[in-house]
Amino acid sequence: MKKGRIPLVVIASVALLSSLTLANGLNLNSLGSRALAMGGAYVGLADDFSAIFWNPAGIAQFTTKYFGFYGTDIIPSGTYELNMNIPGLGTIPVVNAETPTKHYLAGLAAYYIPISENLVAGIGVYVPAGLGAEWDGADFTAASMGEKYDWASKIGMVTISPALAYKINEMVYVGATLNLNYATFSVRTHAGDQDLGVDIGQYDESLSGWGYGATLGILVKPSEMFSVGATVRTPSKISFSGDIEISKLNILGLIPGSPLYGADISTTTSAERDVTWPMWLAGGVALRPVENLTLTADIQWTQWSKIEVMKTEYDDPIWSLIVDPERKMYWNDATQIRFGAEYRINTIALRGGYYWDPSPAPDRTMNVLLPNYDFNVITLGFGYGLNGLQIDISLEYLMGKERDIPYERTQIDPDWKDAQAGVYNMNIMVPNVSISYKF
Question: Is residue 112 part of a domain?
């Protein structure tokens, strides 16, 4: 550890909730198998039950009662290597780690009912963010003073969204949702060694909290061949609270020479942290150039630059002297470009898509429990519909660009002190299925 209070590289980072979520900072990239198979380019189409997530104006297109369920399994595969160049000895491997196979489940359920000819009400429950990272602590013993500690994060967010949508005329639709967000996560990692060369043990954090926001959308359909839509999801401040433990923190009060020698230091404390989920803006078009073929394209922007410094308030004032309550993130706004296609053959639909998902996190805040990557993403899927029943299956594959964080830079540059040096790689497989019924 560097001199001063414990930076704890991942503590406030993972407090953001997600990212090792499915990319794009904290967010899952797609909800709904049809939308996902079309590359998540769905804001200008939004004509199935996942519209409550993409563009609530699309809900006004529903003329019957409508229920849908979507389930997904997010399977990340990551590696991390840290090698050090020692004069006279060459390159010495310090950490060579690989994530075990883990399954992170998420989904969406929504129900809609027409209130009148032009007004439709609905409610949805979905997971807009959630995943985690887990490593074998044995792979990190050389970076943890020879001890085996747990290195893991597990994050989830559930949103409950009542919705209303209105058809102004045959061309223009509008809609809105109220988003009630409940988030929870846990973090386990090595707490560090402070300046005295003393191992202070396992860091264990468990926080949860509530927040709220809204989603507003508009959909314009000049003809059956063309539609265009726009969506804004407002910021949502999540107020977290919970408990934090550092298993051997009291050692700092027992060691002569420690600034806190003689102090009665508790190994646990309550903590609070406010995190604002950023604004999301999206626009999209859908085009039907020939019968049975639909092409879509979206631009989706997230205001990650609002996440710069996050502050944790510890109930025990001594903790603020030991554990740095501020975490600098330096995140940047990110824009996704998405494309999708669907071709229908009677009751069968074939789909495919692509999108580019840049990471909002710079190299100087990269670490193993919050790894962010630039992703190239390909998607594909198919659907079958008959008499109001629709079954959709799709697959998403995210190919992460390697990130190399130089060790020397993290040691000499103060702006890089929170980065975790090493070489990172990540790919993610996302199979999923949707079942919906109109009645």
Answer: yes
Q: What is the pLDDT of residues 350-405, one digit of tens each?
A: 999 999 999 988 999 888 887 789 999 999 999 999 999 999 999 999 999 999 99
pLDDT digit string, tens, across residues 267-276: 999 999 998 8
Alpha-carbon span 44 to 39, nearest angstrom: 13
Measured distance CA(186)–CA(181) in Å, rounded: 17
Residue in this structure with the two tokens 């050090």, named with its chain if needed? 84
| Non-local CB neighbours of 10 within 8 Å, separated by 6+ positions | 153, 187, 189, 367, 368, 369, 370, 420
**Cα–Cα distance, 335 to 302 (Å, whole number):** 7
Domain for residue 3, yes or no? no
Pair 50, 57: CB distance under 8 Å = no
Share of the chain above pLDDT 90, in %: 63
Euclidean distance between CA atoms 263 and 257, whole angstroms:
12
How many domains would you assign to the chain?
A: 1
Residue 352 counted as domain residue: yes
Whether the pLDDT of residue 285 is over 70: the answer is: yes
Question: What's the rounded mean pLDDT across residues 282-289?
Answer: 97
Mean of the per-residue pLDDT values of the chain: 89
Does the CA dihedral 412-413-414-416 come out positive or negative? Answer: negative
233 found inside a domain: yes
In the block, tokens 């964080």 appear at: 405
d(CA 215, CA 24): 18
CATH code of residue 236? 2.40.160.60
Q: Which two tokens stand for residue 78?
A: 């990551």
Domain that holds residue 17: 11-438
pTM listed for this prediction: 0.88
CA proximity to 427, closest of 409, 389, 400: 400
Q: Calculate mean pLDDT across residues 308-330.
A: 86
